[in-house]
Amino acid sequence: MTNPTTTRGLWQVVARREMATALRSKSFLISGAVLVVAIVAMIVVSGFLNGRPHDDTVAVVDGTGQRAVEAASGIADRLQEDTTVTADRVADRGAAERAVRSGDADAALLPTRDGYEVVGDDDVDSTLAQALQSAVPATVLSANAADQDVDLAKLQAGTQTTQRLLDAGPEDEGVRTAASYVFVVLFFVTAIGFGMQIATSVTQEKESRVVEILAAAVPIRALLWGKVLGWSVLALAQVVVLGVAATIALVATGQTGALGPIAPALGWYVVFFVLGFVALSSLWAAAGSLASRQQDLQSTTAPAQMLLFVPYIVAFVAGEGVKTVVSMLPIASTMLMPGRLAEGSVPLWQLLVALALTVLAAVLLIRVGARIYERSLLRTGGKLGFGEALRLSDEREPATR
Amino acid sequence: MLEATSLTRVFGDKRVVDAVSFRVEPGRITGFVGANGAGKTTTMRMLMGVLAPTSGTVSWDGEPITVERRRTFGYMPEERGLYPRMKVGEQLVYFARLHGMSTYDAGKRTASLLEHFGLTDRADDLLDDLSLGNQQRVQIAAALIHRLTALVLDEPFSGLDPLAVDSMTDLLRNEAADLPLLFSSHQLDLVERLCDDLIVLSAGRVVASGAVEELRERGSEQYRVVLDGEDAAWLRDLDGVEVSDVDGSTALLSLTGLPPADLTAAVVAKSRVLEVARVRQPLSEIFREVTS
Questions:
Q1: CB distance from B269 to chain A under 8 Å?
Q2: Record keywords: Transferase included (chain B) (predicted)?
Q3: A-to-B residue pairs, Cβ atoms closer than 8 angstroms
Q4: B249: contact with A, CB 8 A cutoff
Q5: Domain map of chain A by residue range?
C-alpha cells in the first residue's frame, strides 16, 4: 500500500487554481482594466486641467494698454501656474471688439474717459480679469508718478498687505483630499468586488457538486485557506497594479509633486488593506457556503456588505470627530486611516489601536467564518442563515435524501 | 480491508441507515444493491467521511480509519460534480495534485487515463462542451486519478452505454485488482457479472451479504427439462419432484426427494429428452426474495 500523503501545502494547490481561474476569466480582467483606465484617466484629466499652459490674448489699442497687459502676464502666472497673457495691438476700438467677438482675442483692454475697461465676449476668465485689474492701476500709476516727478516707492511705502494663517493646512491640500477619497473608494470597490468573487466561487463548487469530491480529497480548512489567500493575493496585486499605473500617469503628466505628500499614506494603506481584506475574506467564504444557488448570495453576503457600506458612508458624510473614532475601528480603519494620514499627521497611538483592533477582528472573523464554512459547505438544498449555521452540530451535515 | 461496524445515521427522527455492518475485502469486487432510499448513498458518504455517522465506526485493517487514509480512496459520489468551466486535462491534474501527486506524475496519470477513455484529444476542451457520456468518463477518471488504496463508487455505471461499461469494467479490474472495491448499482445483471461479493440493503438494514455464489446456493435450486416435442405435463407425476411451471414440452421443477444425479435417468426412462439443466437463480430473484 502507498503511504497516505500529507495534507500540508494543499491550500497552495487550491490557491493556485483560484488565481489561475481568475486570471483567465475575461470578466475579471476586464473589470480590472476598467479600474486602471478610470484611475489613469482621472489623473490625466486633472493634470490637463491644472497643468495646461494657458495663453490669453488681449487686444489693445494704445501703448499704456500694451504695457498693462505685459505686466498682467506676470501677475497671471503668479495666480495660476503656466499662464501667460499676450497683447495684440489693433487699429481701433471696432477692430478690438471684432477680435473679441471672433475669438481671436480672449478680451480687450480699452481706454475710457476715466480709465480702462476690460471687454469680454460673454465672459472674461477670472484669472485674466483679476490680473488686468491689478496691472492697469499699477502701470498707469507708475506712468503718472513719472509725469509728476513723484517717487512711487515712497508713495507706496507701508501699503503692502500680506496674509498669515494661524492653522495652516498642508500644502497640496487638493491632492491629499483627493487621495484620501480614492483610498476609501478603492478599498470599498476592491473588497466588495473580490469578496463577491470568493463567495461566488464557493457557491459554484456547491452548485456543481464538485465540493463532495473536494471534501473527500482535502481537509475543508485547506479549501477555505486556499480560497481566502488566493483571492487576497489577487486583490493586493490589483492594488499594486493600480498604484504603479497611477504613479506612471502622475509622472507622465508632470504631476510628480503630488507623490511626495501621499507616499507614507500609501505604505500604511497596503498594511491596512491586507489586514482588512483578510479579516473579511472568511466571512465572504462563509456567505458562499450558506447559499445553495447564486441567487442566494444577495442575502447571505448582506452582513459583509454592511460592514463595508457603513464606514464608506461615514467617510463621506461624517465630521472630523466621528471620523477620528471610526478610523480606529476594524475594516473601517482600512478606508479611513490612510486617508487621514494623507490629509495630515495621525497620533501614533491611534494607528496602533487601529492595527491592534483590526488584527483582533481578523482573528475573530476568521474563526467564525471558518466554523460556518465547515458546517454548511456540504449542506445542499436551501439557503442557511448565519445563526442557523453556527448552531449546526459539529459534523459534516449532508443532503438529506 | 475496509470495514463498517454498526453504522447508523439518523436524519431528524428517520433512521436512514440502521446498524449496518459489512466488510469490503481487498481484491474482491463488492456490489452494493438496494432499492431507492435503502441508504446506499448515505452509507457510502459515511465511509468516505463526508458525512459523520450518528453512531458506529469505519475501520481500515482493523484500525479506526484516518483522514489521511480516506484521502487515498477513489470516490465517485452519487451526485456527479466537476468544474463545468474548467478544461478536462487541467481538471484531472488538479484533482491529482489535491491528492498529493507531483505536477509531473499528475500530468502522466491524466494522460494515461484520458487515453484509456479515448479522450486524449478533448483534454483542452471545457468539461461543459463534452457529451454527458464523456463527462461521466471524466468523472470516473477523477475518481481513479491518484494512487488508490480503495474505491468507493456510487452508481458508477449509470448513464454509460454498453461499450463504456465494458471499458470501465476492464479499467476497474486493472486498477483495483488487489484493492477493496465497493460499488452500488441498480443494474443487477451488471452486478451479477462483475461482483465477487454482494451486500443487499433494504430500508437501512443489511438483509443479505456474502459471496455471490454462497447467496445463490442459499436459494432453492431449480431444473429445466425440455422434451422432444412431447407434452411435459407428465413430469408432475414423477416421485420426489415438484413442478413449478409447464410450458408445452418445457417444465421447470425443483427436487423434493430425488437425488440430483438421478433426475436425468428418471426422465430419460419415460421420454425422449433434449435438455436437462440446473437453472442458476438470477440475482434479481435473490434480491426480490431478501428485500420483500
A1: no
A2: no
A3: 93
A4: no
A5: 10-46+172-391, 54-147
- Looking at the fold, whether B277 and B242 belong to one and the same domain comes out as yes
Query: CA B260 to CA A159: how far, in whole Å?
Result: 138
3-class DSSP state for residue A153?
helix
CB contact under 8 A, A217 and B86: no
From B144's Cα to the closest Cα of chain A, the distance in A is 12
| CA dist A190 → A69, A180, A334, B157, B278 (Å) | 51, 15, 12, 46, 76
Q: Say how far apart CA B45 and CA B75 lie, in whole Å.
A: 9
CATH fold of A54-147? D-Maltodextrin-Binding Protein; domain 2 (3.40.190)
Is residue B52 domain-shared with residue B123, that is, in the same domain? yes
Q: Does any CB of chain A come closer than 8 Å to the CB of residue B84? A: yes
What pLDDT, on a 0 to 100 scale, did the predictor assign at position A5? 52
Same domain, B84 and B8: yes
Residue B91 lies in a domain: yes
Cβ–Cβ below 8 Å for B52 and A396: yes
Give Cα A149 distance to the centre of its chain.
59
The per-residue pLDDT for range B52-95, each reduced to its tens digit, is 899 999 999 999 998 888 989 999 998 888 999 899 999 999 99
Residue of A nearest to B12 (CA): A400
Residue B287 counted as domain residue: no
B7 occurs within a structural domain: yes
Which of A213, A225, A227 to mutate to test binding with chain B, by most B CBs within 10 Å of its CB? Answer: A213
Other C-beta atoms lying within 10 Å of the C-beta of residue A1: 14
Tell me the ipTM for this assembly. Answer: 0.79
Nearest to A218 among B11, B45, B98 (CB): B98
User: Is residue A227 within 8 Å of residue A307, measured between CB atoms?
Assistant: no
Are B81 and A210 within 8 A, CB to CB? yes
